[in-house]
């Protein structure tokens, strides 16, 4: 077995029942951290979700993959940190053979009629969302919940996504209804924030490697 052999259960799309509200939380998780866990908790609570699919991507199409840890390792670490039984860690995009969100959402929608999905992302992704493949189609497939992140709180004011879909923005007080709304619909959720990032954790780990252990 190679070090990147991914267990079969992670390659299958998780099971969903008709009528459920499910958050789709895609990420590199390289490595996963408490900031991700906080996003998952906030989304579950504020959006009233039955499940949250913690989707470990084979590779963000816009990122350099030189420093990307094997998928199997990112899954294992995600399982350690994912909060509670409603969070399902999955890597089904690997089996789909691609990592473009627009295509993934089309597939999820086609296979799960009657299920209410919401795309979940941190506020930093608002600023670059218009560079994602078919980004307007993504916004018109499922509602989107943007979770606040230090350094990106004001991004929604200037981002192309926010400007283009300004008419579809709903008040965060109505977040409970987001999953059941027809796309496009999105909201920005404020709340407790975590300053953690995978980049900082990778830098810290690299630094520790260079310091001789006592
Ligand atoms: N501290 C945080 N607060 C809010 N959202 C976050 C936070 N960290 C990550 N996210 C969100 O979680 C999702 C997955 O993020 P990702 O795995 O890229 O982590 P990251 O810390 O941003 O990584 P990197 O530093 O390598 O870019 C993205 O939607 C991102 O916006
Ligand atoms: O589809 C795209 O063009 C696209 C571009 C950038 C990011 N994404 C997805 O957005 C999610 C968050 O990525 P990341 O690296 O910020 O954790 C993850 O599921 C990526 O595959 C998707």
Automatic annotation (TrEMBL):
Q: ATP-binding: is it a keyword of this entry? A: yes
Q: Which UniProt keywords apply?
A: ATP-binding, NAD, Nucleotide-binding, Nucleotidyltransferase, Pyridine nucleotide biosynthesis, Transferase
What catalytic reaction does the record list? nicotinate beta-D-ribonucleotide + ATP + H(+) = deamido-NAD(+) + diphosphate
Metabolic or biological pathway, per its Swiss-Prot or TrEMBL entry: Cofactor biosynthesis; NAD(+) biosynthesis; deamido-NAD(+) from nicotinate D-ribonucleotide: step 1/1
- The gene for this chain is nadD
Domain called Cytidyltransferase-like: residue spans: 24-202
EC annotation from Swiss-Prot or TrEMBL: 2.7.7.18
Q: Name the job this protein performs.
A: Catalyzes the reversible adenylation of nicotinate mononucleotide (NaMN) to nicotinic acid adenine dinucleotide (NaAD).
**Which species?**
Shinella yambaruensis
- The record's top EC class is transferase
Q: What is the lineage of its organism?
A: Bacteria, Pseudomonadati, Pseudomonadota, Alphaproteobacteria, Hyphomicrobiales
Q: GO molecular-function annotation terms? A: nucleotidyltransferase activity
Q: Give the similarity note.
A: Belongs to the NadD family.
InterPro entries registered for this protein in UniProt: Cyt_trans-like, NadD/NMNAT, Rossmann-like_a/b/a_fold
* Identification of the protein by name: Probable nicotinate-nucleotide adenylyltransferase
């Amino acid at each position: 077995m190679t070090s990147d052999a991914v267990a079969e259960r992670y390659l299958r799309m998780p099971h969903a029942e008709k009528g459920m509200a499910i958050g789709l939380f895609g990420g590199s998780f390289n490595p996963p951290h408490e900031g991700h866990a906080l996003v998952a908790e906030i989304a579950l609570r504020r959006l009233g979700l039955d499940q949250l699919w913690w989707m470990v991507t084979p590779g963000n199409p816009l990122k350099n993959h030189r420093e990307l840890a094997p998928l199997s390792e990112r899954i294992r670490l995600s399982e350690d940190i994912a909060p509670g039984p409603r969070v399902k860690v999955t890597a089904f995009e690997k089996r789909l053979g691609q990592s473009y969100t627009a295509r993934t959402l089309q597939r999820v929608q086609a296979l799960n009629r009657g299920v209410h999905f919401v795309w979940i992302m941190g506020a930093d992704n608002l600023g670059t969302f218009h560079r994602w493949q078919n980004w307007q189609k993504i916004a018109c497939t499922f509602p989107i919940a943007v979770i606040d992140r230090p350094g990106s709180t004001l991004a929604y004011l200037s981002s192309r996504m926010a400007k283009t879909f300004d008419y579809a923005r709903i008040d965060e007080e109505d977040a409970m209804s987001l999953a059941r709304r027809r796309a496009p619909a999105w909201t920005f959720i404020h709340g407790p924030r975590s300053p953690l990032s995978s980049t900082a954790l990778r830098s810290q780990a690299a630094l520790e490697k260079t310091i001789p252990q006592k």
